[in-house]
Specification:
alpha+beta; Alpha-Beta Plaits; 103 residues; four-stranded antiparallel beta sheet
């Protein structure tokens, strides 16, 4: 499993519309090959800054299959108009983890 | 629940030692008040760049209680020597999520 982390800065004032667009787009991710789930997180210190995290089975499920699909075009159609600048995307993989005591 | 995201750039060549230090530090997070779990992710495009994600019940559990505790000093003692520069820390909260089909 790999995790896509996309930093998305949204135009000030577009936060509610952006979240509605992402909610509409959830079905695109839910149906995508190799997608294990998606979460959109909103910044507390900077509420126009979002972090989109998507779990994929493999890097190629994201960078090749999803990006080459009509679903990706639709995702960009829905979310893109709210971007303040192009998102910064990277991929990470789990190195260490632990459970807490309050979860 | 809030999510702490810390961007940690590690000195080149220190990656293995850093991961061992974080592994040793897992007990500090597991025991911390309000901590729901911790994950360390390693960059695929940039393998010296790590993302530490810690789930906390409240912002204050991290910024006040944990940072003021002896466990935080011990965490920095273990991990700090491997930092290439001071980590960048922010907090986010969940806005939208969906499950995938492969998880």
């Amino acid at each position: 499993m790999i995790l896509e982390i996309a930093e998305i800065d949204v135009k000030t004032g577009s936060e509610t519309a952006f979240e509605a667009a992402v909610t509409e787009a959830t079905s695109l991710f839910a149906a995508a090959k190799g997608c294990q789930g998606m979460e959109l997180h909103r910044g507390i210190e900077a509420p126009s800054q979002y972090v989109l995290m998507v779990k994929w089975n493999t890097l190629e499920d994201h960078t090749v299959t999803f990006r080459g699909s009509p679903e990706f075009s639709r995702w960009r159609e829905l979310a893109g108009p709210h971007f303040a600048k192009p998102p910064q995307v990277r991929h990470v993989q789990l190195a260490v983890r632990t459970n807490g005591n309050s979860g």
